[in-house]
Design a protein that fits this description.
GO terms for molecular function: transmembrane transporter activity. The chain is mainly α. It contains 17 helices and two strands.
Length: 425
């Protein structure tokens, strides 16, 4: 009989942590109106906490990956959940808007950012050789699944028992995952004297000699000297702009402009999350079998074509053509993650998870820029048409950037930021 490999247990608890982190990060969206009603704060003031959360969610990723390399995955993940628990729980006693920014913006942003896609890249890079792409897809899908599970539940709690009960629920749930991570999450296969899944030899465990912040910045410095980094970062910035930034933020008001009820538009956006789970797992499976550059080129090109057709699909009802768009776009939503993680590992070796953290930061900056630009376009022109067309063109540019990774001579692995400053643990 085959012995159950502990990598699967590590992946399982990682999935649970990511599932919760996604739900915890999205919770403020169901608390905006209740906070406004109770404290009288403007929605702009409350949204500032969400903006800080989003910014830190992206910027924390590379530093968290460096901390995991320096101090271990388990310690950093447990500390991240404790931050989320503290940030959510402390809101029960807040009286000023700056306290909301501190709790939900800073503490929860740092905590969930430490459990973002850099966490995924670190886990799959250490524990999996075989099925690496598939596991990356499954763990990435945990984000969409977390939103699907938590948002409806927390929304009902807010309606029935108030926002404080919802905040307390998040705090207790985050704290409850900590013992599970301590029990089953391990930093490295060598800790259990086994090779990574699919490997034949036990890889020597190393720890970076420098500080985590220095290692993260060093990885950025070394990667920024290479062409692949800018192509990957540029493509992923476009990914963020055309998903979270544009569709995630502006699809509902754009549909409402055409007479569609807000509840119907929100349901359609929720369906995107359902198909996202399927598409991301399928993308992970394909990443194990097809060149990642081809996959990225195809994903971005198809996304661009779909966005170019979207302005003609809006109507007062959810007709079949719009449903086809939702299905297609949902399958492609974050399908780009598994091949991007794989290419970071291919080009940057042991530094891949940290470099991917910086690539992921570009995703969040792209999302923030698109969210603002689309809003300005709506104010200026009275509709979102130019925003959809611009996003379609950007996605096609993303396809070109991905295919440009084929051109020219491949550079050697850029590992100095991790390997050059490491010593046996």
């Amino acid at each position: 009989m085959r012995r159950f490999h502990p990598a699967w247990a590590v992946a399982a608890v990682t999935f649970i942590a990511l599932l919760g982190a996604a739900g915890f990060r999205a919770t403020p969206s169901v608390m905006l109106q209740p906070l406004h009603d109770e404290f009288g704060w403007s929605l702009g003031t409350i949204s500032a906490a969400v903006s800080v959360n989003l910014l830190l969610y992206g910027l924390t990723a590379p530093f968290a990956a460096a901390l995991m390399a320096r101090f271990g995955i388990r310690r950093v993940a447990m500390a991240a959940l404790l931050l989320v628990s503290a940030g959510s729980g402390l809101t029960l006693w807040m009286t000023q808007s700056w306290q909301l920014v501190l709790c939900w913006g800073v503490l929860v942003g740092l905590g969930t950012g430490s459990l973002a896609l850099g966490f995924v890249a670190t886990i799959t890079g250490r524990w999996f050789v075989k099925h690496r792409g598939l596991v990356t897809g499954v763990l990435t899908a945990a984000g969409a699944t977390g939103n699907l599970i938590f948002l409806p539940v927390l929304s009902r709690i807010v309606e029935s028992d108030g926002w404080r009960t919802a905040a307390l629920t998040v705090s207790v749930a985050a704290l409850g995952v900590v013992p599970l991570l301590w029990w089953k999450l391990r930093d490295h296969p060598a800790d259990l004297n086994v090779p990574a899944l699919g490997a034949t030899e036990i890889e020597e465990k190393v720890s970076p000699a420098g500080g985590a912040a220095g290692n993260a910045l060093r990885a950025l410095r070394d990667a920024a000297k290479t062409r692949p980094f800018w192509l990957l970062a540029g493509g992923f910035a476009i990914c963020g702009a055309t998903t979270n930034g544009l569709v995630g933020t502006h699809f509902i008001p754009a549909a409402h402009d055409h007479g569609m009820p807000q509840t119907t538009a929100a349901t359609l956006l929720a369906l995107v999350g359902v198909f996202d789970v399927i598409g991301t797992i399928a993308s992970g499976w394909l990443t194990d079998r097809v060149d990642s550059r081809i996959l990225l080129g195809a994903y971005y090109a198809l996304r661009g074509l779909s966005l170019l057709t979207l302005p003609s699909l809006f109507a007062a009802t959810a007709h079949p053509s719009m449903l086809i768009f939702i299905l297609f776009y949902g399958l492609d939503w974050v399908a780009t993650v598994p091949p991007t993680v794989t290419l970071c590992r291919e080009y940057f070796g042991a530094a891949g998870p940290i470099v991917f953290g910086w690539v992921f930061a570009s995703h969040q900056f792209g999302a923030a820029a698109a969210a603002t630009a689309a809003g300005l376009a709506r104010d200026q022109f009275g509709n979102y048409t130019i925003a959809w067309y611009a996003a379609g063109g950007l996605a096609i540019l993303g396809a070109i950037l991905s295919l440009m990774l084929y051109a020219g001579k491949r550079l050697p692995l850029i590992e100095e930021s991790v390997r050059g400053a490491t010593a046996p643990a």
